[in-house]
Amino acid sequence: MLALFQTIDLALNLYTWVLIASAIFSWLYAFNVINSRNQFVDAIGRFLYNVTEPALRPIRRFMPDLGGIDISPVILLLIIFFIRSLMWTSIYPLVA
């Protein structure tokens, strides 16, 4: 049971870093810091978009329009942190 929780925690931790990378990539892309015509950069951008968009889309549907500011990654990160802390507090009595 502990191995299952550790695997889920690792997957959530990796997804957290992918979300952060996606947000940073979108800022770099928006401000033309990176070359969008480069195939490697385009491949990274498509990968990050395809991995994060299915989780961010439902959050964006319920968010009010903030005038070009997208806080859905922050909300998703808060949800992930909540799930991780809830998961570890529920398993802590079994480990201790």
TrEMBL record:
Pfam families xref list: CCB3_YggT
Top-level division of the source organism's lineage: Bacteria
Alphabetical UniProt keywords: Membrane, Transmembrane, Transmembrane helix
TM regions (residue ranges): 12-30, 71-95
The family this protein is said to belong to: Belongs to the YggT family.
Protein name as annotated: YggT family protein
Species whose genome carries this gene: Neorhizobium phenanthreniclasticum
Organism classification: Bacteria, Pseudomonadati, Pseudomonadota, Alphaproteobacteria, Hyphomicrobiales
